[in-house]
Amino acid sequence: MQYTFANKLLTKLAQQQHVTLERVSDTTYSITVDLGTGWAGDYAGGYWGDCSITDDTLCFYTTIASGADNWDDETEWCFYEGIVQLTYKGGTSANGLAYTGELENAINASVQERTGGLLQCDGSEQGMQGHSGDDESYLSLDVWCDDEYYVATTAAATA
Fold it and tell me: pTM for the whole thing?
């Protein structure tokens, strides 16, 4: 049932215009979502203050792997951390982070839209740690599959 879910999800993701899949192993796939252009600018912040980024183009990266290849033995397939590389205006001296703010919300919506509603994400607590260098900044996101899609796919597999 879980392999049916993963195969259907990966097949549907591969059909999305802005998604690229790369097979890392028999049971691990990297997922890249091109979030498009027009991102550079100023954003209202959340808990960590307003932020500004210089990147015009953003991409979202994550990995999906079987339980045999990850730390969670109870889950047949799971998503690893989602990452969006960012360059904050002002580098490490910049105030504010994307985490919990307007930029994170826009990225979350873009991931969902660009994957045809298949993937969803939201800020991970790692997001507040993602500003360790001028060229090493990132937004960390927890990733999951749309619950309705998962339920429908696994129900069909057991019918």
Answer: 0.85
